[in-house]
Structure formats: structure tokens, C-alpha cells
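for the writeup, i need someone to sanity check this before i put it in the appendix. the sequnce is what the collaborator sent (i think, or maybe the updated version? ugh). structure was predicted straight from it, no edits. if anything looks off just tell me and ill rerun, i have time this weekend
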Amino acid sequence: MIKIYGSVMSRASRNVWAAEEAGAAYELVNLDFRKGEHKQPAFLAINPAGKMPAIVDGAVTMSESLGINVYIAQKYSKGKLWPADDAGQAKALQWTLWAAAELEPVAYGRLREVLFKKPEERDEKLLADLAAKAGPLVQVLETALAQSPYLAGAAFSVADLNAACVMEYLVRSNFDIAPWPKTAAWFKACSERAATKKVSDMRAAAMKVAA
């Protein structure tokens, strides 16, 4: 069984989504970041960086949410989440690295302003600058999705999961992706998957408890 360490309100939700999609048995070991549980020795022994999420799966200990998803796909969902062909696998790696290096700094930058600050405290110039950077990134997706319905071909894979879970930050920061119809349709399809809805329900329940 995979042990996923982190709150469902953190990036650990990405790994829960991947485990659900893969049909892999997992346990979510909740860490309360408000209490600093991710900085305690027990967790630092798993991830010395003290950041959520991390996983322990038998002899495997790993951090970095998008990389964890690739691991889950490769081990537990070959031919499905992890594409069967070389071209699909290459795309899965390509889009995972793109999501981490290109999209996440912009998407999380916007989400941080919107989610953790009151409206009057937000840096509107920063939000506008990040929106200007987001447009060309979404266009990259739009161009790719003009070639196939999903990023690694005809079927949903970890390429889509990793890109979509970062895109969710952008959407949650009130960035409108409607001007990119193929991207909007792709994101809607990813968001309506049963595993995605389960994660959303888990997050909503956790938010009620935290409120």
C-alpha cells in the first residue's frame, strides 16, 4: 500500500488523484501544516526538505508531487495512465516537466495571491503580470490539443493528470481559459473524471473541518 503523506488541501491531492486513477491501494497520512507537522523529525526522515507531499511504497521513498504521479503511473497503471508506446511515454515525461517548470510558477503565483490574501491585500499588478504570462502557456496546450484530444494521444494519461492538476491552480485563481476552447474542453473532461470528483469531495470535506 502506498502511504501518501500530506493534506488533501496540499499538492498531496495530486497523488491521491493518481492513485485513484491507477486503482492502487493507498493511505493518506494527513499532516497539518498549520501545526508544523511537516517539519517534525518523523516526516523529515521521509523528506528532508520538509515539504508535502511524499510517499512511502515498500522500499521506495519519494517526494515531488508530479514525479510521484509518474512513478504511480509506471508501477500501477502501465498501458493506461502510463502509455504503452514510446511516443506516449515521451509525451508523459514532456508534459510533466512542462507543467512543473513552465506552468506551475505562474499558476501557483496567482493562486497564492487569491487564496491566501484578502481582496484588498492582493498585488493586482502581480496578478496581471502573471495573467500575461499565462496566456502563451495556455496557447501551448491549445496547439497541442488541436492534434489529439489528450496530451499523449487519444486516451487520458498521466500527461493530462499532471498538466491538469497544475492548470487547476490557474483556474482557481480566476484565470478564464474560455478563450482557448480546446483547452477548456480538455480541462472540463479531466475535471469530470470520477477520480477527480472524489478528490474534490475530499478537499471540500477537509475545508469544512478546517473552517
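DSSP finds eight helices and four strands in the chain. The radius of gyration is 17 Å.
thx in advance!!
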